[in-house]
Specification:
The protein is 33% helix and 18% strand. It has helices at residues 25-34, 68-85, 108-121, and strands at residues 36-39, 43-49, 56-60, 93-99.
Length: 129
C-alpha cells in the first residue's frame, strides 16, 4: 500500500484537479442510465467510458453513513484512494462511488482495496482490458 510518507512515483500525475470531479446532475443521470455497475460490501461503483475524455470521479455518501463529519471523511477517503488509483485505470472513465453505511468504519486502505477489486471486476483496470 502507500502512505502520506510514500514519495510519488516519478512520471505519474496523482493530482485531483476540480475539473476531474463530477458535479453536474446530467452527468450522474447519464452514467446511471448508460454505464455499468459493480457492488461491494462498502461501496457501489457506477461507471461509463467516454473515449477521448479525462478520467473523472464523484463520491456520493448518504445520511445513512452517519453525521456530516463522518460523511465528509468517507468522501475524502474515496477521493484520496481514487487519486492514487487513477493512473492504472482505463482512459476516458467516469466513476461514481456510492458509499454504504459500512464504509464509515472501513478506513482508507480498506476502501482503496475494494475500489481496486471493483475496477478489476468491471474490466476497467489497466491490465484487465
Amino acid at each position: 500500500m502507500w502512505s502520506a510518507a510514500t514519495p510519488a512515483t516519478p512520471g505519474r500525475d496523482r493530482r485531483l484537479p476540480r475539473a476531474r470531479i463530477l458535479r453536474r446532475r446530467s452527468d450522474f443521470q447519464s452514467i446511471r442510465q448508460t454505464g455499468g455497475t459493480e457492488s461491494g460490501s462498502h461501496l457501489k461503483l457506477n461507471w461509463r467510458r467516454l473515449p477521448g475524455s479525462a478520467r473523472r470521479v464523484a463520491a456520493i455518501v448518504t445520511k445513512a453513513c452517519g453525521p456530516a463529519v463522518t460523511r465528509n471523511r468517507i468522501k475524502r477517503w474515496i477521493r484520496e484512494a481514487w487519486r492514487h488509483l487513477q493512473a492504472d485505470l482505463a482512459p476516458g472513465l467516469d466513476s461514481v462511488w456510492i458509499s454504504r453505511p459500512k464504509a464509515a468504519t472501513a478506513g482508507l486502505e480498506t476502501l482503496q482495496e475494494e475500489m481496486t477489486r471493483l475496477y478489476r471486476k468491471a474490466g476497467l483496470w489497466g491490465d484487465s482490458k
